[in-house]
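Entry: Bifunctional protein FolD
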Amino acid sequence: MAQLIDGKQLSNQVLQEVASEVERLKAEHDVEPTLAVVLVGEDPASQVYVRNKVKRAKEAGMGSIEHRLGTETTQGDLNQLIERLNHDPRVHGILVQLPLPSHLDEEEVIAAINPAKDVDGFHPLNVGALAAGQASLVPCTPQGCMIMLRQVHPDLSGKHAVVVGRSNIVGKPMAALLLQANCTVTIAHSRTQDIESLCRNADIVVAAAGRRELVDADWIKPGATVIDVGINAIEVEGKRKLVGDVAFEAVAEKAGAITPVPGGVGPMTIACLLLNTTRAARHQLA
């Protein structure tokens, strides 16, 4: 049976580090790291995510500001709010919860955020810096995945990693971080031929395709490390259940280490968001 990489336990460690850095910033510079969260519309999942982020921020001793806007919010109104937050010295991190209502342009919104306050790491300047191997604010989910991977492989150099999925939020930045760690990286996606064979040759498989239980035991090399980024809701005997992009029970019998869903990557994403906020606050003092 595979070693379970416990995201809840690891995220608590990261949050303890965040709380310590918050205390240092308050004591040394009289600065309270503050995260501004913008939620547009009534998406239930987004409301849950925002609630959890704000709760964790307060627990870490950080400031948090919420802006809840109606579905009818215009692009101009949203851009104006972001501009105000960009120039507010009390705000160190800005997060606009995605997805946005369909009439709003997500790319325009992301580009409007000050890169120094872009704690999601989605701004083109931060994306470019990551690709170039330069210091930047890094997307939270891939950052959390890397922390989890290093629990199993303190030195990732030379490992063959397959990232299943090529999204801007997870797949592409994940590949960039693995390259920085000197892995040999393959990105697989919906057009990849013989994806199963690629995964079977991998020391590390990061599943971020958004397709429930896509990765089965036949895809996994014995002893490989499997990071499951997927969160998919299914119904089992009339009850809602969350499953990942990995067929957990079968893969856990073959892998060397694996993350669960829930309780794996999810908690790490929020912890890394707050970590990014303290890093942004520290950088803005320079």
